[in-house]
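hey so u asked for the seq, here:
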Amino acid sequence: MATEDREKQPAKGVDDLKFYQLALKLLQAAYKMAAELPDCEKYNLSAQVRRAALSAVLNMAEGYGRYHYLDKLRFFYIARGSLSEVRSAFTSAQLVGYINSDQLQWAYDTEAEAQKSLNGYIGYLRRKQQGREEFGDKLICEDVVVYEDQGIGDQLIRESGLTVIS
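ran it, structure tokens below
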């Protein structure tokens, strides 16, 4: 009964979302696999799988924290691509003999379940269209203020505020 009540309640935070929980499991597995790879993979497969898994988790969290639905979707689409990249890294690791077929199958199943849950949430966001009345259907991004360094002419960029892009 308690489980049914919890499922009917809206998520209280990104931590409650199934796709986020699954992405965290993939992150743990990616870091574990990376730690077990040979030294020759330290700056190649090891680094790439860790970056991809972390990118998925962090983009999910950032997307959840955004207000406008188009802004949210942008981060969730990036997270979706990162999940696919993690899957590909596990495929590559199995292909060259670093992990076994059971480990690969677990990664496939976990990634597929995360993708399915994330796609459902993306569909929900598209239907809900939070922020549409306030900002319309145009992508929102943060203003970029550009300053020039007087010494060498390098541009230093600081982000602030919101702007609607035409």
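The longest helix spans residues 101-128. The domain at 13-135 is CATH 1.20.1440.60 (de novo design (two linked rop proteins)).
lmk if thats what u needed
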